[in-house]
Amino acid sequence: MTEKISRKDFLMAAGASLVVAPMALEGLDRGQRAPVQHLGEQKAVVVDVTRCIGCKACQIACKGWNKLPAEKTEISRDGEFTNPKFFSPITWKIVRFKEIGDYDEDTAGTGGLKWRMLSDNCKHCLEPSCVSVCPAAALWKRSDGPVLYDLDRCVGCGYCTMACPWGVPRFDDELHAIRKCTMCFDRIDQGLEPSCVSVCPTDALQYMNLEEARRVAADAEANGLYTYGVDEVGGTSWIYISDVPFSEFGLPEYSTVTQKGYESDILMKFAGAGLFVGGAILAAVKLYAERREAIMKNDSEGGN
Amino acid sequence: MTAREATKMSELVWGPLMATYLFLGGIAGGAYLISALVDLFKGEDYEVLSKSGALVSTVAVIASVVVLLAEIKRFMVEPLSFLNAFRQFPGSMISVGTWILTSLLIISVVTVILAFFGGNWLIRKIVDVVGIVLSLGTVAYTGLVLSYCRGIPFWGSPFLPALFTVSGILTGLTMAMLMIPVAAYIMPKALNSFWELYERKASYVGMIGQTEKYCQILTVVEIVLLALYIGTTPTTGILLAGSSVSLLFYAYIAIGLLLPLGIGYFNSRLEHQGKDMMIVLSAMIGQVMVLLGGFILRYVVLVGGQLIH
Ligand code: SF4
Ligand code: SF4
Fold it and tell me: Complex ipTM, two decimals?
């Protein structure tokens, strides 16, 4: 009897410690780092595709400031100049090249074909999906704009990679944790512009207050240009202006719904479907039980 | 497909191990749900299924955590980092899942202990009810966790968690049935009741027959939900034609859904002919197929989502 109780006690204690251990790690602080947002104080970058000449100085500057090693790349045969093609733990900035229009002998040399380049990186969303889904509170939105992360906290689950609308956070195979653009917060803190912005020779990248950036975007829209990042997924701190649609660069269309809105929409619909399906299953089970009873009754009556 | 060029990955972030994690999570939730429901609503003849369910749930939760750690590998750099996954409850679905799975593990272990030592009747019933809530949460979690990923439009349908929920319950019930002999071997008390059951063969075979009917109902619901999911999620093209993922998708439909339905029908025919051994064997074949199908489903959805842009 005593042995029984002690074994039970042991298992209970083991179970309890499993629950309590993570809290004990840091007292009662569960590490919630709620995004703080004062639009006026937020910094932003406007990326103007119509000004970009595709020199990739921004891509190089990013490597330089963040001490990111070079990547082994190859020129692809399909005339693709985007290189490397994807974000990676050591490539946080990509200049996307796109040749627009179809080649036509008659119009050759008259501007029928044109190149457009888009300097792309983490958009530093106002309501970041990555921050919202991270189980470890390893990512957070700083009140002045940058979306940052803490490698000490990252559990390496990859959820942010999947939830980010642009798949920005990428896995480092040695750290087994994510890495991504930090908007050069360590330069911002010293009163400097992000590294990529500082080297752009054509001012295709411009650093300013978020409110101002949104005004610039509104003016561009009024002039018939396309914008990206003003409303998408609730708005971002990097706002893009272009004379060609953003789908040309492979950027997906997104509504204004934030990650939290997206989640609750799915949850509500799932709950609705669940009630319906649950009801259907219960009805089917009941029908089956009744039929079975009827058959058994028949059988036993027939048997006798 | 080119419309999402900017979100493409150069390699899979979540691979077969993650699929196994979701598969085992579904089994754990489903098996516990069956264990508790059977304990609450079925007679003594089903005791052995209830015990098997609790045992399966315990083992499946532990295995799922091991598999998950093997997938994310972060512990090799920061051994205790995984504890951080408890932090963002209830804001992050993975955090919710971490808490739910931990609680389900505790409940399953308590249930197994009660089965060993024959605990208090009331306690067992309370544990059942708590466990039902947790197990439903677990099966739903395995789908919700994917459907919240905004960067992967293929997962963005409320019918995905519904599909995984039903599939989780089905695979859980199936695994619990398949493991009855093992559960009976491990747990002396259950062993007695199993051999008793087996001696009164009719009742064991009867249980197979009845659970098969429930499995058939669940399979039909799963087929409907699969159709709704495929019908409502964007970018399904690659799944239906032209890749190894699409081959696996068809394999899932055949192995996980249609063949088990056929076997169930075949078995219901045998029931009246007294071919008990035949029923037991073909039921087991059907059970293995359901489980295989359940794994393939998770793999196809997981990998397909990351390939389809
Ligand atoms: S772009 Fe992706 S990684 Fe960057 S803040 Fe937004 S959700 Fe996070
Ligand atoms: S990979 Fe790291 S940063 Fe990303 S969601 Fe998981 S714990 Fe958070």
Answer: 0.93
